[in-house]
Structures are given as C-alpha cells and as structure tokens.
Design a protein that fits this description.
- This protein has 343 residues and is α/β, with parallel strands linked by helices.
- It folds into two domains: 89 residues, NAD(P)-binding Rossmann-like Domain (Rossmann fold, 3-Layer(aba) Sandwich), CATH 3.40.50.720; 209 residues, Dihydrodipicolinate Reductase, domain 2 (2-Layer Sandwich), CATH 3.30.360.
- The protein is 35% helix and 22% strand.
- The chain has a nine-stranded mixed beta sheet with strand order 13-12-11-10-6-9-8-7-14.
C-alpha cells in the first residue's frame, strides 16, 4: 500500500456481473481501497451487492454516490456521463473498457482529466496480464501471428455470479452511445461494437506487442456475428484477427505470436474463472498458474493514484486511445461478407 494515512475511498456505479465477480472481490479485500458506496439502475441489485461485500451505503443519485470519495469506479455499460460527472466533482475515475465507441470523445475526456490533474484509468486488464507478458518476453518482436476469440460462455458465466433473481445486463437497455461520424454504414458500426465489446482484450494485446500496427482489411459475416481482419506491423508483419460467434458453452481466446527464434501461444482461461487455468506454450515448454491480472490492474491503479507509474506500460488512457483508434480503423475498412446459399 502507498504511504497514506487512509485507503483510497471508492464509489462504484454499476453492480452487474463484472462488479460481483471481478472488481468488488478485489477492491473490498485490498488494504489500498475502501469501497464506501454503490449505485445501480436496479436499486435492489445495489443493495444485494452492498450486503454481500459489506459496503455501507447505497446511493440513488450521482451527487450522493460521489460524496466524500477519491475515485468513481464506472462499471456500467455506457460510461461518458458518469465520467463527466466525476470530473465535474474533481474526482479520479476508473472506467470499464471501452471508454466509448467514439475515440474523439475519449480523447476529450482524457485531455480534460489531464488538464485537471486527475486520473482517468481504463480497465485494460490484459495490459497487466502476467501470461501475456510471459508470451511477449518469449517473442519480444513478433514477425506475425493470430488472435482469436469465440465466446459462447460469457452470458452463462455472468448469470452464475449474480444473486438469485437477477439477470445479466445487456446493452439493449443502455442509452445510445455516440457513433463516429466517419462510419457511414450499419455493418461498420456493428463491426466497431464487436471489436470494442468482444475484441478489446485482443486489440490491447496486439497494440502492446506491435506498436504501430495498422489495419489492412476487415470482413463482417452476413449475419453480423463474426469478424475477420488482417493487420500489418511496421515492417509488414501479418497478423490475423478473428472474433467469431459460437455455440453456447464453447469458448476460445487464444493469441499466437511467432518470432525469429521462438513462438508463444496463450490460451486464456474462460471468463470469470481463475487465471491459473491460462496456459502459455513456447518452444521450451508450457507455463500456467499465473497470478490474477485483475489484482495486478488494481495495484497499478493504486500506484498511479500515489504518483507511481510503471515504466514499461503506457498510461491506461493512452493505451485506450490506441485501441479505440485501431478498432475505428478496422471498422472503417470493414466490408460485409457474402450471403451464403443454403440450397
């Protein structure tokens, strides 16, 4: 813990599965943090979270939520209004990824926070993942590779984390988000949502592994469910990105990087399951039992609040802008795939 007379006081907006299964278990067990208030659009859900994690207060209004805290933790589906309210109150902010669908707005929020001397932290958990960094240590300069995600497991996993009677949130009931003006076609907007909602961790890994990677091609299937993309590194290194629909209960999230003298393949644990199940395979063998990347992420947040910045990582907002820029570039190139005949 940093040299302080008290922990960092946090208020949490949003009590969905990510709060129950990921953030609140870490935050309420850490000596660095004191979660003092919760809020959710479903007050009963917020009360259930407060009871489970011994949080003393449930707030009904944003003014009450942010009263007397150091940082607002935004775990809702749409983030911008809450981020702005926190900055209005001169508070630091942690927000789940992505900041939004429009990177122009993300840049404005980042500039506003920096100008006010406040932190805007973005939950790019993969940037702190020991398994990914083990792979990057084995292949520090990838000459190519692939990144794949096929997730039919997430909804069922989120449902199991919630108290009885509560269902996982979807984006359907969220207020609309600002869409980048340069995306003229509906399939491009769909592609952007897939990239930022389902592929964010893959894009994070790629931007960390290959600074300067650029989009080359992107195709969305006719059903608007699966996306295939090609990207190139600065020296023309090819990388394939696949985000695919799959049957319920099936899951694959894999990253493979090849280099001049070694390769590394990361098979990530399923959502909300222990990171010890993640495997890294290189020419020298297989590693597993990696520490929790969420705990590492929140330790980095605590360090940054205390003015200590990890030298080997970009700030989380700088990384978020790079990821959102990359997603926008891919979405802008995206073309719809053919309708396949079924006869």
């Amino acid at each position: 813990m940093s040299l302080r007379t008290r922990p960092w006081r946090l208020a949490v907006a949003g009590c969905g599965a990510a709060a129950f299964g990921l953030h609140l278990p870490v935050l309420t067990s850490s000596p660095d943090f004191d979660v003092t208030a919760l809020a959710d659009r479903d007050t009963a859900r917020a009360r259930a979270a407060a009871a489970r994690f011994a949080v003393p207060r449930v707030a009904g209004k944003i003014e009450d939520l942010v009263d007397g805290v150091d940082m607002l933790v935004v775990l809702t589906g749409v983030h911008q209004d809450l981020i702005e309210a926190a900055l209005d109150a001169q508070l630091h902010v942690f927000t789940e990824k992505p900041v939004g669908l429009d990177v122009t707005e993300t840049r404005k929020l980042a500039d506003r926070a920096q100008g006010a001397g406040l932190l805007l932290e973005v939950g790019a958990m993969r940037a702190h993942d020991p398994a990914l960094h083990a792979a990057l240590a084995a292949v520090p300069e990838p000459t190519g590779g692939w990144l794949i995600k096929a997730d039919g497991f997430d909804e069922a996993a989120r449902r199991r984390l919630l108290p009885p009677g509560f269902s996982p949130y979807t984006f359907v009931d969220d207020p609309p988000q600002t869409i980048p003006r340069q995306l003229a076609d509906a399939h491009q907007v769909t592609a952007l949502k897939i990239l930022l909602w389902q592929g964010y961790h893959l894009l994070t890994a790629l931007t960390l592994a290959v600074p300067g990677v650029t989009p080359a091609a992107c195709t969305l299937d006719a059903d608007g469910q699966s996306l295939h993309a090609l990207l190139f590194g600065p020296a023309g290194q090819p990388f394939t990105l696949v985000i695919s629909a799959t049957a319920p209960g099936r899951f694959l999230e894999q990253i493979h990087f090849g280099g001049a003298s070694d390769t590394a393949t990361v098979d990530f644990a399923r959502p909300y399951e222990p990171s010890t199940a993640t495997r890294v395979t290189t020419a020298t063998g297989e590693q597993s039992d990696f520490p929790d990347p969420f705990a590492a992420m929140w330790q980095a947040v605590s360090d940054r609040l205390a003015g200590q910045y990890p030298a080997d990582l970009p700030t989380s907002t700088a990384l978020a802008v790079r990821v959102e820029d990359l997603a926008l570039g891919l979405a802008g190139l995206c073309r719809p795939g053919p309708h396949l005949r079924k006869d």
